[in-house]
Amino acid sequence: MNKKILITGTLLGIIGVILGAFASHGLKNAISEASLRSFEIGVKYQMYHAFFLLVISQFSFLSSNNKKTILILTVLGIILFSLSIYLLTTSVLTGINFKAIGFLTPIGGLMLILAWLLLLFAILKEKNILFEK
């Protein structure tokens, strides 16, 4: 499970760097400032959660089941949150109106929150966490 989480986090990070560079160089003059800022928020959240996965893969107190659930929630959250933002903000370039998928963004955000809450509950439940004395 740890290797799968590490690979997923690494791939999300690689894609995040590519999309960040694309936004900075390719989209800068192609979409509005507001759309560019929104696109960058999608990239930021993708990168935050790439690091999140890399970190949780190393937590020995998390059960394999918890890690799997966190991985699923995080990946689905990034797909629904960040990908919907990418599509919505670049619709002027594609000519496709993605407004119909706008409701997916907050659902993705909720999944990311649930992943963090699951981590919190696992931490609170654990008695032998490495940072306790």
Automatic annotation (TrEMBL):
Ranges that cross the membrane: 47-63, 70-88, 100-124
Major localisation: membrane
Pfam family, one: DUF423
Membrane topology value: Multi-pass membrane protein
Subcellular location field: Membrane
Record keywords, A-Z: Membrane, Transmembrane, Transmembrane helix
Cellular component terms per the entry's GO annotation: plasma membrane
Family listed: Belongs to the UPF0382 family.
Entry protein name: DUF423 domain-containing protein
Species whose genome carries this gene: Aurantibacter aestuarii
Lineage: Bacteria, Pseudomonadati, Bacteroidota, Flavobacteriia, Flavobacteriales
